[in-house]
Amino acid sequence: MVGLVLKVGADTGKLVLRMRQSAVKICEMSAGKPSHPVAALPGGWSKPITEKERQEILKLADDCLELGKLTLDIFDKVVLQNKGYMELVTGNVYKVVSNYVGTVDANDKITYYDGTQKIVDTKGKEIGRFKGKEYLDFIAERPLPWSYQKAPYLKKLGWKGLDDGDDTSIYTVGPLARFNVASGFDTPLAQEGYEKMLNAFGGKPVHNTLAFHWMRAIELMNAAENVKNIASDESITDTNIRQELGKPVGEGVGIVEAARGTLIHHYKTDEKGFVTDANLIVATTHNKGPMNVAVKKAAKHFIQNGKVDDGILNLVEIAYRPYDLCFACSTHTLPGAIPVRIDIVDHKGELVKSLRNYEIT
């Protein structure tokens, strides 16, 4: 916020905070808390929206729309009209050539909760679609001896290392990936922003990492428009918000688009519903390969003759910040996640036995 205020002024900074508060209030009314919602339950939702709350959300949604417009306006004036910034945005320093995965609806528009996961290659050609458990046919994960994260790659292309380029098998998820796989948005203001970005780059796919930020601003507008549309529907005050729970089905896969990218949650349970096996591939895990490539490229470009200072490190950091990484989410340790060995020793320190991870019980 301090950086924003210094760049655009205190009055604009205060306006952004006030508008953001409206979004936080909507989350609190609909989900129980202003952040980290708690209303979700197996089978549905725990908190219905009242008609009074719906009317208030409608008013607050106008603030969200204004925030979307303001964000795109600031981005236009501060970044798009700055030659130096645009050279970074469209140049090769921050550029990772990869495949892309994102979720689209029946009309090939960007969607977040329902739809089909679409894959395009480095040239923008569609190479596959999947839903639910079918992700196992398209995505494989490779353990790395030096990382708590596994490295996902496109299974049908085979593992080709953490390298980018036309022959790569790594892929990207998130705002830029959604831009590259879809034909746009189903709301007018976001679609207008989408077409402006498309024209600026002269087509798709866009491999410039800093374009993540531009697309993220456009998605903010799309979210605001969606809030307004949903709140305009009186049926959202229906109190029938949870289904009766049936018997555990034993296995389930959920895939949604979070702000930072595609989330895949795969669970298996016993007959009582207790989880016996789980695999999560979250956005930062999907982006393992592209992030490593981005950092390596930036470091090679900016670090010369062994000179490293805070300014240079900041330029390297710019390479991975667009991915909005979350290592707390992505470094979960699950069976087979990393190759480990546990040594058992006696009270004298003598080795009794060495166990590999698959032998540990």
List its salient traits:
361 residues; three-stranded antiparallel β-sheet; 13 strands
Overview of the structural elements:
Residues 334-338 have low confidence and may be disordered. Helices cover 41% and strands 18% of the residues. A hairpin with an 8-residue loop joins β6 (139-142) and β7 (151-154). Among the domains are: 1-81, no CATH class; 92-215 and 225-234, no CATH class; 333-361, no CATH class. The chain has a 4-stranded mixed beta sheet with strand order 5-4-3-8. Strands 9-10-11 form a 3-stranded antiparallel beta sheet. A two-stranded antiparallel sheet has the order 1-2. The chain is of the alpha+beta class.
Largest sheet: 4 strands, mixed
Q: Number of helix segments? A: 12
Overall pLDDT score: 91
Topology as a string of helices (H) and strands (E): HHEEHHEEEHEEEHHHEEEHHHHEE
Q: How large is the radius of gyration?
A: 23 Å
Structure summarized in a few sentences:
Helix content is 41%, strand content 18%. The longest helix has 30 residues.
Strand and helix layout:
Elements: H1 2-8, H2 10-31, E1 40-41, E2 44-45, H3 51-80, H4 83-90, E3 99-104, E4 116-120, E5 126-130, H5 135-138, E6 139-142, E7 151-154, E8 171-172, H6 175-181, H7 188-201, H8 211-231, E9 251-258, E10 261-269, E11 275-281, H9 283-286, H10 288-302, H11 310-320, H12 327-330, E12 341-345, E13 351-356
Parallel strand pairs: 3-8
Antiparallel strand pairs: 1-2, 3-4, 4-5, 6-7, 9-10, 10-11, 12-13
Helix pairs in contact: 1-2, 2-3, 3-8, 7-8, 10-11
